[in-house]
Design goal:
This protein has about 100 residues and is of the alpha+beta class. The chain is about 40% helix and about 25% strand. A 4-stranded antiparallel sheet has the order 1-2-4-3, covered by helices on one side. A hairpin with a 2-residue loop joins strand 3 and strand 4. Helix 2 packs antiparallel against helix 3. The radius of gyration is 13 Å and the shape is globular. The N and C termini lie far apart (about 35 Å). The structure holds 7,8-dihydrobiopterin. 7,8-dihydrobiopterin (HBI) binds next to loops.
């Protein structure tokens, strides 16, 4: 898995909504807030299954209705296409969770 090229960064990262850089790491971070724990956990279950299928696992933390997620690719030493793909998937599931 290769890291994102400067061109890929310039085009793909600004198109992700609400994902912020996470210095000093080459990573993306987002905090999602749901209606309650049930909604947060349902969302996490869907993301976990997608992550497993993609062999790409988020670093995340849940406190009741709040889920903090950090994406990076250890194998690439920074951001790769897998992070962009998982971020898109996460945003879709979050939207569906309301
Ligand atoms: N998940 N986020 C992330 N980054 C990785 O580099 C990674 C992973 N899940 C599994 C995985 N790599 C495997 O290829 C092994 O390196 C564990």
């Amino acid at each position: 898995m290769s890291p994102l090229t400067p061109d890929q960064r310039a085009t793909l990262l600004p198109a992700l909504h609400g994902w912020q850089p996470c210095p000093p790491r080459d990573a993306l971070r987002k905090v999602l807030v749901f209606e309650d724990f049930n909604a947060a956990w349902g969302f996490m279950s869907r993301v976990a299954l997608a992550a497993e299928r993609m062999d790409h696992h988020p670093e995340w933390c849940n406190v009741w209705n709040r889920v903090e997620i950090v994406l990076t690719t250890h194998d690439a030493g920074g951001l790769s296409m897998r992070d962009v793909e998982l971020a898109r998937c996460i945003d879709r599931y979050a939207e569906e969770a309301g």
